[in-house]
Amino acid sequence: MPKELVTLKVRIRMSDGSRPYVHPAKTKNNKLKAKYVLIDQIEHYHPEGIYTLCWRRGGQPAYETVGSDPSEAESKLARKRLELQSEALGMALAPKLPSFPLPMHSPETLPSHAPTTSKVAGRSLKECVATYLKETEEHKKPKTFAAYRNNLDNFGDFCLAAHIEKATTHLTKEAKGALTKQEKAALVKGASMAYERTCIEEVTREDLLAYALFLRQYRENCPRSVRNKIDYFQIFLHHFGLPSLLLGKDLPKYTKKTVRKYNKVQLQKMFDEATLDEWDLMHFLLGIGPRAQETSYACYPDVDYVTGEYTVTEHLELGFTPKDGEEGTFPIPRSLVEILLARRKRYPTMRLIFPGPSGKPDLHLLRIIKRLGLRAGVNCGFCVTKNGLSCAMEPVCKHVILHTMRKTYASMLHKNGVSARTLMRYLRHSDLETTLAYLADDEDDDELRATVSDTFAGYAAQAPPA
Does a structural domain hold residue 453? Predict the structure, then answer.
């Protein structure tokens, strides 16, 4: 792997007053983990940490603070990498640009500063991006908005790479290496000017296919992430009245993973190992089937203790809006009602059912379940994070997640006679197909298992080979 021109560190404050730069912690999807850093390969919580770009300029170390927002830090890291690689190599993003033809419009030779007229009259791509982000930020949740913004930043980087690749196709590798600093600067400036002249109507099917390849090869995105980013870009096109450019077989392929559920043995092990607070949380997840944020923002007034019903409720004062803006009311087990009444007596001043240490919504309930899964011995033992942590020893098993409890809730009700359409309402899904996906691998009953075992028992009864 070539040495990175710029790295992202986090400057933290230690108990002894020192302020070292350390590596940021990342999730299993290789995304920055807000407020967490790695010290001796172990995650530590440092909410005061500030993301900082580190590189060398003229042989001397250089630094630039980029704030505490992980999404903003990743975006600025990509921009700084683009800038430094442009200076060093005359390339926009990587030492080797794609070998496939890149159809974005750009000059055929080293660009001059003389403006040219776009071949297609239309709306500026750059201005459309700015308009879209401004309008989207107003009605999308921060996490969703960050995903849209980062994707459009990636597409902008891809366009610059495409323009530079096309402008230097006539040059040999040696000629590219011999470019002067002024020629490199002119090349980058010309690519930026060409991008600014690009109209949104000029983006083609070939561009999106090349962008998908760019994401796989140079951003190292997994197939599912590539598909998501192509979908996000086509949503951007729809915003301006343009059709999808990739359909059917053109769309990036990925493996659809089934949502697993806990079996009876795993559930019993977790309940047996749980503390009282963990026991409450387990019953809530299993008896209601909520999404993660719905659990974090659940409040005692959301429970009707007389009728035994629960309502997923909007709490704007806490910053919570249900997914798709839909509230929903559905019955819950009487046993859970009793558990919540007992919990309220233990915490009489709390409004939130599962608050964090500061009394605010706990957005890290997944950690509780993962730690419980490790103690209960339900981890698979084979998951390894990119930081080298094994789920045999650490609470990092990818099969122990909150969403698995939601699938378990749906499957158990369906097996006991609740219809799929009723479950669709309980789960607050917008279509039946999504609900059916939760039930596709419903648990087989004991009688059917016995039939399968008896069918092949004769072969097992034979003596094994010596």
Answer: no
Does residue 148 share a domain with residue 13? no
Q: List, for residues 287-302, the tens digit of each pLDDT value.
A: 999 999 999 999 999 9
| Strand (E) or helix (H) holding 294 | helix 292-296
**Using an 8 Å Cβ cutoff, are 392 and 247 in contact?**
no
Q: Nearest-CA neighbor of 77 among 28, 131, 23, 13?
A: 23
Strand 21-26 to 328-331 pairing: unpaired
Q: Report yes or no: 361 and 320 within 8 Å, Cβ to Cβ.
A: yes
Domain count, the chain: 3
Q: Is the pLDDT of residue 277 over 90?
A: yes
Residue 231 and residue 275 share a domain: no
CB crowding 206-227: b at 16 or more within 10 Å, else e: ebbbbbbbbbeebbebeeebbb
d(CA 359, CA 380): 33
Half-sphere exposure of 100 (CA within 13 A, CB side): 13
The tens digit of pLDDT for each residue in 305-355 reads: 999 999 999 999 998 988 877 889 999 999 999 999 999 999 999 999 999
Does residue 447 sit within a domain? no
Domain check: are 328 and 425 in the same one? yes
Contact of 89 with 187, CB cutoff 8 Å: no
- Is the residue at 255 inside a domain? no
Q: Which of 69, 101, 122 is the last residue of a domain?
A: 69
Contacts of 407 (CB under 8 A, 6+ apart): 259, 260, 261, 438
Check if the beta carbon of residue 23 is closer than 8 Å to that of residue 10. Answer: yes
Domain ranges, residue 109:
90-250
Q: Report the sign of the C-alpha dihedral through residues 290, 294, 296, 298, in that order.
A: negative
Q: Which tens digits make up the pLDDT trace of 368-400?
A: 999 999 999 999 999 998 788 999 999 999 899
Closest CA to 214 of 102, 85, 348: 102
